[in-house]
Amino acid sequence: MENDNKPNNTAAETTPENGPPSPPPIPEKRLTKTEELQVQFVAMDKPATLPNTIDALLKKPASVLHDLQNGNFGKLSANLLITALICLGVFGFILGLFSGDKQLWSAPAKVVLGVGISGLITLPSLYIFSCLNGLDVSIKSVAGVLASSLTLVSLLLIGLAPVSWIFTQSTDSKVFVGFLTLVFWTIALGFGLSLIFKAARIMGVKNRAHLAIWALIFTVVTLQMSTSLRPIIGSADTFLPTEKKFFLTHWFDEMSQIAEDAENGVYRR
Amino acid sequence: MRIADAIAPDWKALTRGESNRLSGWLTGVGAETRLLLCVVTIFCGVGIYGASVGLWRSPLMASYVGVKLPCIIFITLAVNGMINGMLALLLGTVLSFRQTLQAILMSFTVFALIVGSLSPITLGMALNLPGPESSEAESAHRQLLLTHTALIAFAGIISTQKLFGILETFSGSKSIALRTLIAWLAGNLFVGAQVGYILRPIFGSPALTIEFLRPDAMQGNFYETIWWAINHSF
Description:
The complex is a heterodimer.
Chain A: H1 33-40, H2 50-59, H3 61-69, H4 73-96, H5 103-132, H6 139-170, H7 174-202, H8 209-228, H9 247-264
Helix pairs in contact in A: 2-3, 3-4, 3-6, 4-5, 4-6, 5-6, 5-8, 6-7
Chain B: H1 2-16, H2 19-27, H3 35-54, H4 59-90, H5 97-128, H6 137-171, H7 174-198, H8 222-231
Helix pairs in contact in B: 2-6, 3-4, 3-5, 4-5, 4-7, 5-6, 6-7
């Protein structure tokens, strides 16, 4: 009976049949994370159509960043913008289904507006913080990186939209849906921001402290935007709020109001 | 007999966790993917097991749970399909959307084979325990609940282990496989619990009426119920 599990001869072993010993194999040099990313920083292997852009953003985001910086900015940024608009709009619509009525159009509009305004008002600081990190970049290429990042966020949100839908249809709790959306936003934003950090690595940034600060600012801006454009979940008489609030204050107010209503047996949706 | 001869090696590959062969299913096309085999196995294996879960209440309940249990798996996969595919790509597993779906289906197939193989035992148990009309119904229901929870957890752990093997072979990296597996598991458990909640009753408390879906199926959610239970326990 033959044994399939024969042990392999090591390279340095010598037997009378195989002659002089062969030298031990040279260990392969493991690429660092930065080197790995730089290897992936090549042109997209397919034309920059909408499906190919989405595909590349998920599989090889470095190639999208490469093409954005090397001449295909217009077409690619249009693809990214369209994708982000559609995905955020659909995600907003799913959130709007929680309350229905005019929230069906105002929630998508607010989600798109919120992300768009957050991107626009943080773009100058991203550019400055990139320069502080010693990068020689143009505002156009920084805008491209930010657009890719936000599109990735919106793609992940659309991936999570069916889960959101299940919960918006099966619960009456505004706090629960709000918390769930916050968790989903955090997950998506985590991936989106990691793309910005990857781009920084590719461009040779070693100390990413400034970018980390920017990431924190961006996160706070998006959270505040959700409060400034409230309600995205739940309903109200006016499109925009009449009272200005910090997002943490708003969250605590909402939670205590709902606890109070529950105690008094009041049902609000 | 010919069908059994054709299927047996595939089932063996799944249960033995022959990662190289299973990776071949992922990269294959058409019949090579064994997609139909996985779907049918899940329907039959989990369906029979589900019937054994419901049989303690009544044959009608057995038929309901026999249909609902596989549905929980397929609805969860449908809801999470997109995000699972995206996470696989973003975490570096290089699995396409179709391959992601199939890898998870393969894992559920292993789950179905395990629970399906245990269903004769659980059927026997359902038939031998004091019935729902007896004075010991509550205690019998608790025993059933505990046994099925243990069996489902066991089958879940083993099938997850097999999925990890497939992912590791396919991605060539333990850390990537682990990250992807954790992300998928978290998502599937999170949604699966809610889908199960919507499709209740599954275990059929003896005090409640037998029905396919509760009239308030879409009212409330699993996590609110857990939160309520915690709040009212202390």
